[in-house]
Amino acid sequence: EAQVTQNPRYLITVTGKKLTVTCSQNMNHEYMSWYRQDPGLGLRQIYYSMNVEVTDKGDVPEGYKVSRKEKRNFPLILESPSPNQTSLYFCASTPSRLAGPRTNTQYFGPGTRLTVL
Amino acid sequence: GQNIDQPTEMTATEGAIVQINCTYQTSGFNGLFWYQQHAGEAPTFLSYNVLDGLEEKGRFSSFLSRSKGYSYLLLKELQMKDSASYLCAVLPPDRGSTLGRLYFGRGTQLTVWP
User: B42 contacts in A (CB within 8 Å)?
Assistant: First the structure.
Protein backbone atom coordinates (compact mmCIF):
# COMPACT_ATOMS: atom_id res chain seq x y z
CA GLU A 1 0.00 0.00 0.00
CA ALA A 2 1.34 3.42 -1.01
CA GLN A 3 1.76 5.49 2.12
CA VAL A 4 3.69 7.97 4.20
CA THR A 5 4.41 6.86 7.74
CA GLN A 6 5.45 8.93 10.73
CA ASN A 7 6.66 7.92 14.16
CA PRO A 8 5.85 8.53 16.87
CA ARG A 9 2.22 9.56 16.45
CA TYR A 10 2.11 11.17 19.88
CA LEU A 11 4.97 12.48 22.00
CA ILE A 12 5.15 14.41 25.25
CA THR A 13 8.62 15.62 26.15
CA VAL A 14 10.40 18.27 28.17
CA THR A 15 12.25 21.40 27.15
CA GLY A 16 15.75 20.75 25.86
CA LYS A 17 15.53 17.00 25.35
CA LYS A 18 16.56 16.21 21.79
CA LEU A 19 14.03 14.29 19.73
CA THR A 20 13.60 12.94 16.22
CA VAL A 21 10.37 12.37 14.34
CA THR A 22 10.80 9.87 11.54
CA CYS A 23 9.09 9.99 8.17
CA SER A 24 9.18 7.33 5.50
CA GLN A 25 7.46 6.94 2.12
CA ASN A 26 7.29 3.89 -0.12
CA MET A 27 6.30 5.62 -3.37
CA ASN A 28 9.78 6.52 -4.61
CA HIS A 29 8.84 10.21 -4.45
CA GLU A 30 11.57 12.78 -4.92
CA TYR A 31 10.07 15.62 -2.90
CA MET A 32 9.43 15.44 0.81
CA SER A 33 8.33 18.16 3.22
CA TRP A 34 7.65 18.82 6.86
CA TYR A 35 4.80 21.04 8.03
CA ARG A 36 3.54 22.18 11.37
CA GLN A 37 -0.10 23.04 11.94
CA ASP A 38 -1.27 25.37 14.66
CA PRO A 39 -4.78 26.69 15.37
CA GLY A 40 -5.49 29.83 13.38
CA LEU A 41 -2.22 29.61 11.48
CA GLY A 42 -2.86 26.73 9.12
CA LEU A 43 -0.16 24.54 7.63
CA ARG A 44 3.28 26.09 7.53
CA GLN A 45 6.24 24.47 5.83
CA ILE A 46 9.31 23.88 7.98
CA TYR A 47 11.76 22.25 5.56
CA TYR A 48 11.56 20.51 2.25
CA SER A 49 13.80 18.23 0.25
CA MET A 50 13.99 17.93 -3.52
CA ASN A 51 16.09 14.77 -3.50
CA VAL A 52 18.74 12.90 -1.55
CA GLU A 53 21.14 15.33 0.14
CA VAL A 54 19.16 18.35 -1.17
CA THR A 55 17.18 20.23 1.45
CA ASP A 56 16.01 23.82 1.89
CA LYS A 57 14.24 25.95 4.45
CA GLY A 58 10.54 26.55 4.35
CA ASP A 59 8.70 29.34 6.15
CA VAL A 60 9.42 28.37 9.78
CA PRO A 61 12.77 26.50 9.94
CA GLU A 62 14.07 27.94 13.24
CA GLY A 63 14.68 25.27 15.86
CA TYR A 64 14.50 22.37 13.41
CA LYS A 65 16.93 20.28 11.40
CA VAL A 66 16.37 17.71 8.70
CA SER A 67 18.42 15.23 6.73
CA ARG A 68 17.82 13.26 3.56
CA LYS A 69 20.37 10.47 3.35
CA GLU A 70 18.01 8.07 1.62
CA LYS A 71 15.21 8.78 -0.80
CA ARG A 72 12.51 7.19 1.35
CA ASN A 73 13.36 8.79 4.71
CA PHE A 74 13.18 12.41 5.85
CA PRO A 75 13.56 12.74 9.64
CA LEU A 76 12.77 15.95 11.52
CA ILE A 77 15.15 16.73 14.36
CA LEU A 78 14.52 19.07 17.28
CA GLU A 79 17.90 19.54 18.94
CA SER A 80 16.56 21.48 21.92
CA PRO A 81 12.75 21.52 21.89
CA SER A 82 10.89 24.43 23.43
CA PRO A 83 7.21 24.84 24.39
CA ASN A 84 6.54 26.97 21.28
CA GLN A 85 7.26 23.88 19.21
CA THR A 86 4.20 22.17 20.64
CA SER A 87 2.21 21.48 17.50
CA LEU A 88 0.79 18.94 15.08
CA TYR A 89 3.45 17.91 12.57
CA PHE A 90 2.87 16.44 9.12
CA CYS A 91 5.31 14.89 6.73
CA ALA A 92 4.38 14.86 3.04
CA SER A 93 5.84 13.50 -0.17
CA THR A 94 5.32 14.47 -3.80
CA PRO A 95 6.33 12.83 -7.08
CA SER A 96 8.92 14.48 -9.28
CA ARG A 97 7.90 17.73 -10.92
CA LEU A 98 8.94 16.11 -14.19
CA ALA A 99 5.97 13.80 -13.85
CA GLY A 100 3.71 16.75 -14.64
CA PRO A 101 1.74 19.21 -12.55
CA ARG A 102 -1.31 17.00 -12.11
CA THR A 103 0.76 14.56 -10.11
CA ASN A 104 2.01 17.25 -7.79
CA THR A 105 -0.49 16.54 -5.09
CA GLN A 106 1.17 16.02 -1.77
CA TYR A 107 0.60 12.78 0.12
CA PHE A 108 0.49 13.40 3.83
CA GLY A 109 1.51 11.19 6.70
CA PRO A 110 -0.93 10.66 9.61
CA GLY A 111 0.60 13.39 11.76
CA THR A 112 2.63 13.58 14.98
CA ARG A 113 1.18 15.46 17.92
CA LEU A 114 4.08 16.87 19.91
CA THR A 115 3.80 18.49 23.34
CA VAL A 116 6.85 20.16 24.85
CA LEU A 117 6.53 20.91 28.57
CA GLY B 1 5.43 37.14 -1.14
CA GLN B 2 2.52 34.78 -0.80
CA ASN B 3 -0.93 35.77 0.42
CA ILE B 4 -3.73 33.21 0.36
CA ASP B 5 -7.05 34.18 1.89
CA GLN B 6 -10.11 32.09 2.70
CA PRO B 7 -12.95 32.51 5.21
CA THR B 8 -12.27 31.11 8.66
CA GLU B 9 -15.63 29.44 9.22
CA MET B 10 -18.79 28.53 7.34
CA THR B 11 -21.95 26.69 8.29
CA ALA B 12 -24.60 24.98 6.18
CA THR B 13 -27.36 22.43 6.52
CA GLU B 14 -27.49 18.89 5.28
CA GLY B 15 -28.52 18.64 1.62
CA ALA B 16 -27.58 22.24 0.86
CA ILE B 17 -24.89 23.66 -1.44
CA VAL B 18 -21.93 25.63 -0.11
CA GLN B 19 -19.21 27.59 -1.89
CA ILE B 20 -15.85 28.15 -0.21
CA ASN B 21 -13.82 30.95 -1.75
CA CYS B 22 -10.07 31.37 -1.93
CA THR B 23 -8.20 34.40 -3.20
CA TYR B 24 -4.48 34.46 -3.71
CA GLN B 25 -1.69 36.90 -4.44
CA THR B 26 1.48 34.93 -5.07
CA SER B 27 4.80 35.34 -6.83
CA GLY B 28 3.89 33.27 -9.86
CA PHE B 29 1.38 30.47 -10.17
CA ASN B 30 1.50 26.85 -11.31
CA GLY B 31 -1.79 25.51 -10.03
CA LEU B 32 -4.16 25.49 -7.08
CA PHE B 33 -5.13 22.59 -4.84
CA TRP B 34 -8.03 21.98 -2.51
CA TYR B 35 -7.62 19.60 0.41
CA GLN B 36 -10.08 18.31 2.99
CA GLN B 37 -8.93 17.80 6.56
CA HIS B 38 -10.97 16.24 9.35
CA ALA B 39 -10.01 17.19 12.88
CA GLY B 40 -6.75 15.56 13.97
CA GLU B 41 -6.25 13.84 10.64
CA ALA B 42 -4.02 14.41 7.64
CA PRO B 43 -5.21 16.54 4.71
CA THR B 44 -6.55 14.55 1.77
CA PHE B 45 -6.48 15.70 -1.83
CA LEU B 46 -9.74 16.93 -3.38
CA SER B 47 -8.91 18.79 -6.58
CA TYR B 48 -6.28 20.50 -8.68
CA ASN B 49 -6.85 23.39 -11.13
CA VAL B 50 -4.23 24.92 -13.37
CA LEU B 51 -6.41 26.28 -16.19
CA ASP B 52 -9.38 28.63 -15.89
CA GLY B 53 -12.75 27.03 -15.52
CA LEU B 54 -14.73 24.52 -13.56
CA GLU B 55 -13.64 20.97 -12.77
CA GLU B 56 -16.36 18.67 -11.51
CA LYS B 57 -15.80 15.52 -9.51
CA GLY B 58 -18.95 14.02 -8.08
CA ARG B 59 -20.46 16.24 -5.38
CA PHE B 60 -17.38 18.47 -5.37
CA SER B 61 -16.42 21.03 -8.02
CA SER B 62 -13.55 23.49 -8.12
CA PHE B 63 -13.30 26.69 -10.13
CA LEU B 64 -10.30 28.82 -11.04
CA SER B 65 -9.86 32.30 -12.49
CA ARG B 66 -6.17 33.06 -12.86
CA SER B 67 -6.70 36.66 -13.96
CA LYS B 68 -8.65 37.36 -10.76
CA GLY B 69 -6.49 35.25 -8.45
CA TYR B 70 -9.63 33.46 -7.34
CA SER B 71 -10.84 29.95 -6.80
CA TYR B 72 -13.81 28.32 -5.15
CA LEU B 73 -14.74 24.86 -3.98
CA LEU B 74 -18.41 23.96 -4.44
CA LEU B 75 -19.89 21.20 -2.32
CA LYS B 76 -23.34 19.91 -3.29
CA GLU B 77 -25.81 17.72 -1.42
CA LEU B 78 -23.98 18.32 1.80
CA GLN B 79 -23.65 15.45 4.23
CA MET B 80 -22.70 15.46 7.90
CA LYS B 81 -19.40 13.81 7.03
CA ASP B 82 -18.47 16.91 4.99
CA SER B 83 -17.91 18.79 8.25
CA ALA B 84 -14.17 19.44 8.03
CA SER B 85 -11.56 22.06 7.31
CA TYR B 86 -11.00 22.86 3.63
CA LEU B 87 -7.53 24.04 2.67
CA CYS B 88 -6.64 26.04 -0.41
CA ALA B 89 -3.01 25.70 -1.53
CA VAL B 90 -1.05 27.36 -4.33
CA LEU B 91 1.78 25.72 -6.25
CA PRO B 92 4.45 28.21 -7.31
CA PRO B 93 6.30 27.98 -10.64
CA ASP B 94 9.30 25.72 -11.01
CA ARG B 95 12.10 28.04 -10.04
CA GLY B 96 15.14 27.14 -8.00
CA SER B 97 13.83 28.80 -4.88
CA THR B 98 10.35 27.31 -5.07
CA LEU B 99 10.87 23.69 -6.07
CA GLY B 100 8.98 21.47 -3.64
CA ARG B 101 7.01 24.36 -2.12
CA LEU B 102 3.27 24.48 -1.61
CA TYR B 103 1.66 27.51 0.05
CA PHE B 104 -1.44 26.88 2.14
CA GLY B 105 -4.23 29.17 3.22
CA ARG B 106 -5.34 28.96 6.85
CA GLY B 107 -8.30 26.75 6.04
CA THR B 108 -12.07 27.14 6.21
CA GLN B 109 -13.84 25.19 8.93
CA LEU B 110 -17.15 23.96 7.53
CA THR B 111 -19.86 22.75 9.90
CA VAL B 112 -22.81 20.88 8.44
CA TRP B 113 -25.95 20.86 10.59
CA PRO B 114 -28.72 18.25 10.33
Answer: 90, 108-111
Residue type for A111, please?
Answer: G
> What separation in angstroms does the CA of A99 have from each of A30, A103, A104, B15?
11, 6, 8, 38
Neighbours of A50 (CB within 10 A): 19
How close are the terminal C-alpha atoms of chain A, in Å?
36
Task: Say if the Cβ atoms of A94 and B101 lie within 8 Å.
Answer: no
Which chain A residue has its CA at the smallest distance from B95's CA? A97
Could you report the per-residue pLDDT of B1-41, keeping only the tens digit for each? 578 999 999 999 999 999 999 999 977 788 899 999 999 89
> From CA B4, how far away is CA B107, in angstroms rounded?
10
* Contact call for B105 and A44, based on CB within 8 A: no
What are A6-43's pLDDT values in tens digits?
Answer: 999 999 999 999 999 999 999 998 889 999 999 888 89
